[in-house]
Amino acid sequence: MATELLTKIDHELKLDSNKQYALLVNGMGATPLMEQYIFTHNVLDLLAEENIKPAFVKVGNFMTSLDMAGISITLLELADAAWLKALNYPVETIAW
């Protein structure tokens, strides 16, 4: 599944090892966190084959549907260094 999703993302983004990326792996609600981590490991291995190491990686249930099984990938090109700083900025929320 990781290969299929990354192939589609690469087709659209034309991934480049000279660029920085942020990776978000989102569980849809019913996918156990352990499976999300295994999937993320597979994604990172596939990216490493292309000499891409995301500067930011986040895994968890962020946008969910009631007990929906599945995973989504968001791969964001960090076109501006400020974006990475913003992603790493400490925040407090009432949820998560």
Quick rundown:
The chain is an alpha+beta fold and 96 residues long. Helix content is 39%, strand content 20%.
Please outline the helices and strands.
Layout: H1 2-13, E1 21-27, H2 33-49, E2 56-60, E3 71-77, H3 81-88
Parallel strand pairs: 1-2
Antiparallel strand pairs: 1-3
What can you see in these coordinates?
- With 96 residues, the protein is an alpha+beta fold.
- The protein has 3 helices and 3 strands.
- The protein has helices at residues 2-13, 33-49, 81-88, and strands at residues 21-27, 56-60, 71-77.
- A 3-stranded mixed β-sheet has the order 2-1-3, sandwiched between helices.
- The chain is globular and about 40 Å long.
- The two termini are 26 Å apart.
Primary descriptors:
single chain; 96 residues; alpha+beta; Hypothetical Protein Tm841, Chain: A,domain 3
> Strand count, sense and closure of the main sheet?
3 strands, mixed
CATH topology term: Hypothetical Protein Tm841, Chain: A,domain 3
Overall number of strands = 3
CATH classification, class level: Alpha Beta
Record the strand order, biggest sheet.
2-1-3
Q: How far apart are the termini? A: 26 Å
